[in-house]
Amino acid sequence: MPIFAISSRLFGHARRVALAAGVVAGALALPASAAPGKGPDSVADLAEGIMDAVVNISTAQNAPVERSVPVPKAPEGSPFQEFFDEFFNKNKNKDNTPRRVQSLGSGFVIDASGIIVTNNHVIDGADEITANFNDGTKLKAELIGKDTKIDIAVLRVKPTKPIKAVKFGNSDKARVGDWVLAIGNPFGLGGTVTIGIVSARNRDINAGPYDNFIQTDAAINRGNSGGPLFNMDGDVIGINTAIISPTGGSIGIGFSIPANTAAAVVDQLLQYGETRRGWLGVRIQGVTDDIADSLGLKEAKGALVAGVTEKGPADAAGIQAGDVILKFDGKTVPSVRELPRMVADTPVQKEVDVVVLRKGAEVPLKVKLGRLEEGEKQAALEKGGAKPPEAPKPQPTVTTALGLSLAELTPELRTKFKIKDSVAKGVVVAEVASGSPAADRRIVPGDVILEVGQEAVGRAEDIVKRLDALKKDGRKRALLLIANPEGEMRFATVAIE
Fold first, then answer.
1. Residue 134 carries which DSSP code?
2. Is 293 one of the catalytic residues?
3. Rounded Cα gap, residues 302 and 285, in angstroms
4. Active-site entry in 225, 250, 256, 294
5. Which DSSP letter does residue 355 get?
6. Residues 409-462: pLDDT tens digits?
7. Which domains does the chain have, with CATH numbers?
8. Residues 147, 151, 447, 462: which is the catalytic one?
9. Helix (H, G, I), strand (E, B), or coil: what is residue 270?
10. Measured between alpha carbons, how far is 204 from 75 in angstroms, rounded to an integer?
11. pTM (2 d.p.)
């Protein structure tokens, strides 16, 4: 009711504005021959042809009973105490049965046999899933498979009569400015059609490792999640997934999973009930202008390898930390964002050509990809393992360079900074001078320097010698490979004083 009341006030205001405009127009006395301008072409035929393929997804699940709120206490004899007792006892869950929680979303049929696509977050945790069709038909749905990384779920219903299906289009052909149409179930208002344009492509909103959303200004609200974004040919080019809104309603910034990304995942879920993504076995970071300069690259491009998974595909192929991956499977790697998607979209066990930049030279390699899901399981098992402690080492000498107090990695320093056994070698940062170049790059005590200028270092003296060599070569910055106490590695460039 409040929504419609607000709408009425807005319509009333619009009517007053229109009347005022009419007075002005009359005063201007437009020529009788002036024809009204033609509005945009209608999309009624398009909407009518695809509407029946869009469904409303309703779910229900048992939620645990929340702890009861204690009954407020009023002064003895107060009339409020009787009110409190009556209100809280009436609303108390006497038998502690779980509450039934319901939610609404959208989806669309991609196969007339009863295959439906929606967002994973629409059905996540549901005990019951129902697909509500445009003609009023309600069918129970079963989950075939889901993918949490790009937020997709595939459902199956058993239709009792023919149902309408739509197909995925080529989202790569969608251009900024193209018209698009969204159909869904915003706020429970099923069959809602909105229209807009492609506002941007390849958006990264930090929702997952494979972000490349289509941005649109077609109105998308709560309940539109999982619904289709159509092009003007009636093909699905996106799955509406997220919005940016300080109010909870549409402000014209919505995001859809591209059809080309979704279709490959849907095929895997239909075939295997799970995803099977390619896995390279590297940790990567972006190539900044400073890093590019320190490596002798003319422009910042590719993906910098910060670490290699032991016994993973990259390790077996000879990829090393410090390599910059320039090409993967014959395609240029523009930046760090694109490489995970390129690898994930490549079939498991495929042997691909990879070109890396290593110490100024391009090195061709062949890598046989593994399966990401298996790699993640392996990493989870190894995370809890511990290697035997290292033999005691002599007390370190401390050397200063780049505003850092540096020392050898000893058991005492390992204990002091809680450095994990996975960091087996390197030079420990004992102190960082305030305002130094290293402090500007967020190097902190407890970090371990593994390489300087792509050369391994094991003692503080090694770092000093390496910096001197870089100075003689005319380098203004040094590229450092650094591990934090947890063993996570990254590259940082530091100005050579």
1. T
2. no
3. 9
4. 225
5. E
6. 888 888 889 999 888 889 999 888 887 878 888 899 999 999 888 888 888 888
7. 45-64+97-275 (2.40.10.120), 279-382 (2.30.42.10), 399-495 (2.30.42.10)
8. 151
9. helix
10. 57
11. 0.68
